Amino acid sequence: MSDLVVDAVSVTHGSTLAIDDVSLSIRSGELVAVLGPSGCGKTTLLLSIAGLLPVQAGTITIGDREISRPGRTVAPEKRGVGWVPQEASLFPHLSVGENIGFAVPRGRGAARAERIAELAHLVGLDDYTGRAPNQLSGGQAQRVALARALAPRPDLLLLDEPFAALDTQLRTGLRREVAELLRDQGTTSLLVTHDQEEALTLADRVAVLRDGHLEQFGTPEEIYQQPASDWVASFVGDVVELPGQWRGGRVLCALGSVEASAVGFTPADGDTVRLMLRPEWIVPRPDLLAQAAAGADARVASISYAGHDAMITADLVDGPSVLLRMAAVELPEVGDDVRLAVQRPGLAFAAATLP
Ligand SMILES: Nc1ncnc2c1ncn2[C@@H]1O[C@H](COP(=O)(O)OP(=O)(O)OP(=O)(O)O)[C@@H](O)[C@H]1O
């Protein structure tokens, strides 16, 4: 398995600039998710890496092989790249075993049959190699598609929303399984998804695309805790935004004086900023009720219970409503008075940059 380097790549569809000067460097064995809203260029990026679309600028390299540059596109079958599509797209006239072995050269005698058996075992379908694709469930078909892509030992595996067509329960289980399998195999993989939870839970690093631009490339923790822009902050996860005034590394706002770091600008004392918090950074602090100086008073307005946790809307006495996410162990009740505090530094964005 090799490194993938996408260097200053631009790709157009006619007059549409779908990928605009994107650079990504993926280490050997890494699983990277490409995350972004519909139409941001995820599929276009994947197609250009697969060799199905030419690049108008920049280069794509796998290991020490340059596979794309303007005017030169190495053919898809010569790139050493595997592809797992959204729908398994198995060949209906071939057995499961023959689907898995489709890209493994014939004429190697036992070696080919061994590789098919090895892959069938890897995806937990040892007993299914003689079956026809229409005798498989959706999840099983997707495993066959994965085995088929891995069989010729690609340098890089591209997965285009491979779990999107599956129901929620199956999707959660299968994606965990697939991520483990790819890690065990040391497969360098690029997974396209518009599902932020999928990206954050599975990937070593996440590339966030917006309108063909790379907004941020970082670990799931960096993307969620230190978003590079207010757009990334609101696209990946829930946000609570409050206007406030910057004062020496803190923001004075309806939640009190909250420690914060400024993102993308250097505020001066007195500047108006937007404070951004995640709902789980705000917590009820009954211990502060006796201390008038700390925290902010609020009343619980509604509770949206989700089993493992709950989203609580609390009306601040001196300000707007805020959202809190709490583990559903000891929840307050609607109408309860609470004292809220912020348990980790927030993010301050320039007021003018917010939509
Ligand atoms: N064949 C095409 N001809 C013209 N424009 C295209 C073509 N394919 C994609 N586009 C445009 O290029 C941009 C990026 O499309 P792309 O399919 O890569 O986005 P995406 O992020 O994969 O979207 P989705 O999540 O909806 O699949 C969009 O503006 C789209 O309309």
UniProtKB/TrEMBL annotation:
SMART domains: AAA. Residues 4-236 form the ABC transporter domain. Keywords: ATP-binding, Nucleotide-binding, Transport. GO terms for molecular function: ATP binding. Pfam families: ABC_tran (PF00005), TOBE_2 (PF08402). The keyword Nucleotide-binding applies. This is ABC transporter ATP-binding protein. It comes from Microcella humidisoli.
